[in-house]
């Protein structure tokens, strides 16, 4: 059975972000079911899902309440669109709930099916906003190197993932990227080794330099994740965000905070923007919104933009068949209600985040570990060559090896080059955090 599933997979399934050829040779792991923080493969192995699926299964697996919400809504109204002046109860309630949880100036939501679609929406809204405001010259968007904002053409253009750009194909013009606040990778090394806070300020200054190169009245928006996720769980120095905010305010540039990963409790607040005291003009969301049970995303839109577009009138020619899908909306709403009722976010902030930070930090004594960092329930290890104490010359090898070993030993960790990442379900227990850290250490031992 297993064999035939793998053979069919190989024969017919092109996987996202995958080397098709290598997968064809090695075959896929078949994941059959999941419960709590564990996934189970077809060979019966139990694996602690240190990545919450893809940073999304925040409430963990097997939540009956979410299954019920989907079933009830499917019976009641499995689909109706929100185009053409129609709406339905789940989408209205979800929009109101999201606005009540978000920073105060965000009082409208535009729904999408994914985080990538949310960022397509962002780009269109940003550009339309400035045209309506009579400043059509404000068209440039500044993103960050190694930032990730999705895989559609707009998403990959806003993102700064070199391998995605290097594969060619179309990119949206008018988007530029500045350096990322990655102290371990960039600030700590080279001729001008800097302390983290000086480095954070320098990365913010790079935004101002780029604004002046482009023309100070030409920049529409800056887009960034509060903590870069897919880029390697890059937690910026404390100095970074206050300095960025000051630069954007100086040149009247919109702030887009991509909360697709950081939103919904990951960093110990409802949104990363709350943790860093940001007041975004636009906030793309997805993933944890429904704990990944169904695909749904959206953009929380600040008053400044929503009021302008509403007052201007005229159709916004943009939207998706599944914008505000009733079943996805019902599940997302129930997900948020459970998170509130169980105090999930507060628990991450007050208990689980600090506990993980303490336990994770114990890995710093491992010869392969150059840095162990965490915020809330997102954490990273920087692998280094024990011989030199520096990063490996040939990135990827150690990270990929460690990831595969970890999986075999029963823990999903992700590798971004030689950075190992975890982002477990927010309902993980203290004991499960202990197990996670022990498994990570075993994987490091075997990798070394
Ligand atoms: N934005 C961020 C910060 C993400 O991490 C991701 C996905 O990982 C996206 C956008 C794209 O979301 P999706 O894969 O749902 O299109």
TrEMBL record:
The keyword Transport does not apply. Signal peptide: none annotated. It comes from the Bacteria. PROSITE patterns: AA_TRANSFER_CLASS_3 (PS00600). Pfam families: Aminotran_3. GO terms for molecular function: pyridoxal phosphate binding; transaminase activity. Keywords: Aminotransferase, Pyridoxal phosphate, Transferase. Gene3D superfamilies: Aspartate Aminotransferase, domain 1 (3.90.1150.10), Type I PLP-dependent aspartate aminotransferase-like (Major domain) (3.40.640.10). Its cofactor is pyridoxal 5'-phosphate. The keyword Transferase applies. GO terms for cellular component: cytosol. NCBIfam families: PRK07480.1. Belongs to the class-III pyridoxal-phosphate-dependent aminotransferase family. This is Putrescine aminotransferase. The lineage of its organism: Bacteria, Pseudomonadati, Pseudomonadota, Gammaproteobacteria, Oceanospirillales.
């Amino acid at each position: 059975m297993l064999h035939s599933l793998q053979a069919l997979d190989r024969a017919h399934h092109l996987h996202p972000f995958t080397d098709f050829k290598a997968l064809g040779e090695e075959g896929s792991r078949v994941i059959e079911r999941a419960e709590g923080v564990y996934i189970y493969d077809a060979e019966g192995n139990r694996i602690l899902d240190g990545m919450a699926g893809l940073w999304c299964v925040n409430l963990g697996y097997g939540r009956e309440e979410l299954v019920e919400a989907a079933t009830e809504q499917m019976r009641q109204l499995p689909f109706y669109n929100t185009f053409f002046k129609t709406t339905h109860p789940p989408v209205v309630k979800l929009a109101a709930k999201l606005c009540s949880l978000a920073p105060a100036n965000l009082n409208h939501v535009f729904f999408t099916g994914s985080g990538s679609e949310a960022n397509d929406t962002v780009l269109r809204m940003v550009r339309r906003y400035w045209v309506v405001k009579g400043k059509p010259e404000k068209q440039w968007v500044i993103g960050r190197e190694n930032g990730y904002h999705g895989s559609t053409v707009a998403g990959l253009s806003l993102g700064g993932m070199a391998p995605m750009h290097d594969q060619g194909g179309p990119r949206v013009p008018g988007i530029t990227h500045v350096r990322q606040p990655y102290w371990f990778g960039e600030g700590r090394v080279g001729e001008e080794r800097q302390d983290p806070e000086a480095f954070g300020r320098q990365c913010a200054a790079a935004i101002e330099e780029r604004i002046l190169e482009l023309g100070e009245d030409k920049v529409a928006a800056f887009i960034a994740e509060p903590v870069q996720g897919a880029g390697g769980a890059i937690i910026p120095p404390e100095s970074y965000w206050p300095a960025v905010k000051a630069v954007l305010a100086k040149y009247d540039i919109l702030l887009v905070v991509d909360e697709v990963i950081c939103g919904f409790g990951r960093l110990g607040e409802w949104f990363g923007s709350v943790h860093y005291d940001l007041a975004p003009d636009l906030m793309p969301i997805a993933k944890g919104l429904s704990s990944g049970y169904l695909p749904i995303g959206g953009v929380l839109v600040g008053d400044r933009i929503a009021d302008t577009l509403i007052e201007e009138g005229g159709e916004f020619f943009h939207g998706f068949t599944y914008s505000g899908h009733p079943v996805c909306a019902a599940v997302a709403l129930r997900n948020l209600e459970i998170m509130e009722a169980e105090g999930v976010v507060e628990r991450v902030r007050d208990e689980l985040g600090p506990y993980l930070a303490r336990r994770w930090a114990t890995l710093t004594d491992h010869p392969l570990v150059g840095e162990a960092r965490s915020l809330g329930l997102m954490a990273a290890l920087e692998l280094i060559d024990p011989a030199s104490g520096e990063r490996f010359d040939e990135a990827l090898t150690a990270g990929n090896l460690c990831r595969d070993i970890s999986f075999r030993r029963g823990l999903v960790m992700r590798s971004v080059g030689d950075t190992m990442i975890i982002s477990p379900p927010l309902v993980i227990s203290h004991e499960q955090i202990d197990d996670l850290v022990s498994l990570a250490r075993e994987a490091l031992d075997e990798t070394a």
